[in-house]
Design goal:
This protein is an alpha+beta fold. It has helices at about 35-40, 95-110; strands at about 20-25, 30, 55-60, 65, 70-75. The chain is elongated. It starts with 20 loop residues before the first strand and ends in a 6-residue tail after the last helix.
């Protein structure tokens, strides 16, 4: 899943706590890269909890839950995407197929397809 602000993709994780942050925007789970965390007030673009106002939300199984106060609400249905719940990750991110192909070529040590 890319950063929702700049589109950067995570690289292979290193041990320890990830510098990427999670949040919920328009009832979708999103990630924020470290560069966007420094350059923008990234929490202003996220949904907040109706109970306590926190932006520490997670989206799972059609629900949005606040990690601070525990308030849970049902996620709103997606916007005409075949009935998918809003929390479902997007598989149609631009460039994903190309990135997967390049990764497979690196791992399998193949030359360019052709």
């Amino acid at each position: 899943m890319p950063c929702f602000r700049c589109g950067a993709r995570q690289t292979d994780p290193v041990r320890g706590v990830s510098p990427w942050r999670r949040g919920v925007r328009d009832d979708r789970q999103v990630l924020v890269c470290p560069a966007c965390q420094c350059a923008h007030d990234w929490t202003a673009d996220l949904d907040d909890c109706a109970g306590c106002g926190s932006t520490a939300l997670i989206c799972r199984l059609g629900e949005v839950e606040c990690r601070d106060c525990g308030h849970v609400r049902e996620a709103r249905p997606g916007d005409g995407q075949g009935g998918r719940l809003a929390c479902a990750p997007r598989a149609d991110a631009p460039g994903l197929a190309e990135e997967v192909e390049a990764a497979l070529h690196r791992v399998l040590r193949r030359g360019p397809a052709g």
